[in-house]
UniProtKB/TrEMBL annotation:
Positions with a binding annotation for Mg(2+) 2: 23, 25-26
Gene3D superfamilies the record matches: 1.10.287.1770, P-loop containing nucleotide triphosphate hydrolases
Species the sequence originates in: Cellulosilyticum lentocellum (strain ATCC 49066 / DSM 5427 / NCIMB 11756 / RHM5) (Clostridium lentocellum)
UniProt cross-references to NCBIfam families, sorted A to Z: feoB (TIGR00437)
This protein's name: Ferrous iron transport protein B
Major subcellular location class: membrane
């Protein structure tokens, strides 16, 4: 017999919810040592075998992090709506044991809902290292719920936690009552009286509390006939004082609990984290340190490790391509089919896979920076600059995510409360170069700027950031005028990165790249081969092909930028599907085989590009239309085709304009 159980995983941001989710379900969702990694609910399944030999199927729902059930941003709304409206069997409240007092505010709000709650005290190892002692038995007695100490990253305590979830689902629960002032209780009673005639999914007291806290969205849980009376209540002069009193009462109650359950053996001293932050988050040193760190990342990715491995991959893929070609010749495969397989499919796919070492190195470096806690500091040090541009400091987090992929980065804007700030962040995010552009940058930088790859690619990332911030400033002064909101964030402690975690996260990203190479890039390479070897009359040479004709129509637009040839034009068109396809198209068009070595590529393109025009091509590639996946994300997150087409149009104009300026000015000096 199998029973089914739905568990909602709720807690503050950046306390290990996704780590626990992965540990319980065997999933490999992205984990980061900063807030805002999870911006949508994720579901996973696992089984528990009870002592009675009954199998329980548990559906675990990982919710975005939130500090309270009063939702202000889209990701917080997702968490609140699921807990309140979807009625999970049990709420698994994950709490950071090393920051118990701060975490208990959400816990009290969950308990006031009257739903079954199990608390998992995570990071017990960090709490112990800080000299903190928590009396879990006393805490259980005070809150009236099961409390299980765990260390999610090491899978400690998970069996006990699962058993507690199953047990809690079988026990009736009652709403927890925080002691409020008599005047607040009187106002609560009046509000509850307006609600008690209705059939409500959550306790009337909880709805009344949310209304008195100024949460107008709580009205959605009440039938419309009493909305006018409740709205009047929300607009009384005393409502602000009532709201503050409720909050104060909760924190006083939390302080009382902490005094009874927690003790500390820690001595006052400047922690390792504080010593580093003295320099890393310094008002003047912070940004130069960030620039130096990113240059080191690029040097590691290209000059130090990436390029030597890329040359090795290039040689290996070249031998594989020769073996495949010889095998097809030996099998008497038709010339056109052999050309399709070798010059089309394999040539295009291998041309991109050659740059796998560079991409893997970049992912390794960025994952280490995330895991240590440094990326959270970047968001902090950029806050002042963001506010001067009119943006919320939270905008920097999606920007940093964009260095990996713009799709999850655009989804990451859900953490931004102000809708105008969120729209601005969505529309500028594609300027922050994703990893898919990396093969293009690497290919051209190695061919035209040997030995200076790190400097060239660092400059491209810098240009992307600069243009993105400049456009954000213009948008905030024109399309999306609003006051910048204060940015409050918690800086996690530094810790040594986990080799297992880095390997898992990098493998997931590399696997995604390999899947894309075997599907999207493979199909695109085959299609490109056909349009480059056929026209409307049948087979033809490449210069008279359908692809060449399409490229020649577009090429004059790029002539003022220094690359007005049909090969470059066609590659840019193909790159809208996925930026890696630009490399695939170049490999096919110029007949490079599997080789994308700097010398071979430079010799093939020497007649079409100069170093200056090659750099301008990279600038255009950096700034022009994002891939279809990113365009789809813009459409979904703005809920508008209008803004998607706006993004396409204005990015094309900016890409052309910036590349034109660089080419025109560059010709004056080179």
């Amino acid at each position: 017999m199998t029973n089914h159980l739905t568990v909602a995983l709720a807690g503050n941001p950046n306390i290990g919810k996704t780590t626990l989710f992965n540990a319980l379900t065997g999933s490999h969702y992205t984990v980061g040592n900063w807030a805002g990694v999870t911006v949508e609910k994720k579901e996973g399944h696992f089984y528990y075998q009870s002592a009675e030999h009954t199998s329980v199927s548990i559906n675990l729902v990982d919710l975005p992090g939130t500090y309270s059930l009063s939702a202000f941003s889209l990701d917080e709304s997702i968490a609140r709506d699921y807990i309140v409206k979807e009625n999970p069997d049990v709420i698994l409240n994950l709490v950071d044991a090393s920051n118990l007092e701060r975490n208990l505010y959400l816990t009290l709000q969950l308990l006031e809902l009257g739903k079954p709650v199990v608390m998992a005290l995570n990071m017990m190892d960090l709490a112990t290292a800080k000299g903190l002692k928590i009396n879990t038995e006393m805490l259980t007695s005070l809150l009236g719920i099961p409390i299980i100490p765990i260390v999610a990253s090491k899978k400690v305590g998970l069996k006990e936690l699962t058993a507690a979830l199953v047990t809690a689902s079988k026990v009736d629960s009652t709403a927890y009552h925080v002691p409020y002032l008599a005047s607040i209780e009187a106002t609560l009673s009046e509000t509850i009286h307006l609600l008690e005639d209705h059939s409500l999914k959550v306790p009337a007291r909880w709805i009344a509390l949310k209304l008195l806290e100024g949460d107008e969205r709580a009205l959605d849980l009440v039938p419309g006939e009493h909305h006018d009376e409740l709205q009047t209540l929300l607009q009384t002069e005393e409502i602000e004082a009532i709201r503050e009193s409720i909050t104060d009462s909760k924190y006083e109650h939390i302080s009382s609990i902490i005094s009874k359950v927690m003790s500390s053996d820690a001595h006052e001293q400047t922690s390792f984290t504080n010593k580093i932050d003295h320099f890393v988050t310094h008002r003047f040193l912070g940004i130069p340190i960030f620039a130096a760190v990113m240059f080191a990342v690029f040097y590691f990715t290209f000059n130090l490790v990436g390029n030597p491995l890329t040359d090795l991959f290039d040689t290996v893929f070249g031998h594989i391509l020769d073996l495949c070609n010889n095998g097809l010749v030996a099998l008497n495969v038709a010339d056109w089919l052999r050309a399709l397989i070798i010059d089309g499919a394999l040539n295009g796919v291998f041309g991109v896979l050659t740059f796998l070492p560079n991409i893997a190195c970049l992912f390794i470096a960025l994952t280490i920076l995330e895991d240590t806690g440094y990326m959270a500091r970047v968001a902090f040090i950029m806050d002042e600059l963001m506010r001067k541009l009119g943006l919320n400091g939270k905008s920097i987090i999606p920007m940093l995510l964009g260095f990996g992929c713009n799709v999850p980065a655009i989804m990451g804007t859900r953490t931004i409360e102000d809708e105008k700030d969120r729209m601005t962040s969505i529309l500028i995010n594609p300027f922050f170069s994703c990893s898919a552009r990396l093969p293009i940058f690497t290919l051209f930088a190695s061919a035209f700027f040997p030995g200076k790859e790190a400097i060239v690619i660092f400059s491209l990332y810098f240009i992307g950031i600069l243009i993105g911030l400049l456009v954000a400033f213009i948008f905030k002064k024109t399309l999306f005028k609003s006051d910048s909101m204060p940015f409050i964030m918690e800086l996690p402690p530094y810790h040594l990165p986990s080799i297992k975690h880095i390997a898992t996260q990098v493998w997931e990203k590399v696997r995604g790249f390999l899947i894309k190479a075997g599907t999207t890039i493979f199909v695109a390479s085959v299609i490109l081969w056909f349009i480059l070897n056929f026209n409307f009359t049948g087979p033809t040479d490449m210069s008279n092909s359908l692809g060449a004709s399409i490229g020649r129509i577009i090429a004059p637009v790029f002539a003022p930028l220094g690359f007005g040839n049909w090969q470059a034009a066609l590659s840019l068109i193909a790159g809208v599907v996925g930026k890696e396809i630009v490399v695939s198209n170049m490999a096919i068009v110029y007949g490079l085989g599997a080789s994308t070595s700097a010398t071979v590529f430079h010799d093939a393109l020497a007649s079409s590009f100069s170093p200056l025009s090659a750099y301008c091509f990279l600038i255009f590639t950096l700034l022009y239309v994002p891939c279809v996946g990113t365009l789809g994300a813009i459409k979904r997150e703005t809920n508008s085709l209008k803004w998607m087409w706006f993004a396409i149009s204005y990015q094309l104009l900016i890409a052309w304009g910036v590349a034109f300026i660089f080419y025109t000015v560059g010709n004056l000096f080179f």
